[in-house]
Design brief:
By secondary structure, this protein is α+β, with helices and mostly antiparallel strands. The chain contains five helices and eight strands; from the N terminus they run H-H-H-E-E-H-H-E-E-E-E-E-E. Helix 1 crosses helix 3 and helix 2 crosses helix 3. The longest helix has 21 residues. The relative contact order is 0.18.
């Protein structure tokens, strides 16, 4: 096999990591078997599902979390163990407004030496809530 179709397949895969072997074959007018052979055996690309990561913490979000923790620590230093007994917290939870896309829809071509892809949820299909309640005595 000449290097011309191999280079063409590689360019298409690098341009669109979500493209299928069927679409590659149709785009380059080659057989499905040839496209599969080039992608898998020669270029050693494999479809991998991206790992879903709920969010990417920005520097501002990290700073807000540190500020919240420092505020809680100040109250504890002033009020002692009694303050801890009045705090009710919970872990972050996601509330979905629609069904997230399937893992299959997120599969993309990766080289065997590539790190596993990640998807940070930035679409407005979910909302995040972290409950925190302060309780006053008497």
């Amino acid at each position: 096999m000449t290097s011309e179709p191999i280079a063409a397949v590689e360019a298409i895969v690098k341009e669109n990591h979500l493209i299928t072997v069927h679409e590659i074959a149709a785009h380059l007018d080659m057989s499905h078997g040839s496209a599969h052979h080039i992608v898998h055996d020669i270029l050693q690309f494999h479809k991998m599902s991206a790992r879903w990561v709920p969010h990417q913490l920005t520097a501002e979000l990290k700073e807000r979390r540190v500020d919240a923790c420092q505020e809680l620590l100040k109250h504890f230093e002033v009020e002692g163990d009694g303050y801890l007994g009045r705090i009710v917290t919970g872990d972050e939870t996601w509330v979905y407004y629609r069904q997230p896309e399937t893992k299959k829809a997120n599969k993309e071509w990766c080289h065997t030496s590539s790190p596993k892809p990640k998807i940070f949820r930035t679409q407005p299909f979910a909302g995040k809530v972290m409950p925190s309640f302060g309780m006053n005595e008497g």
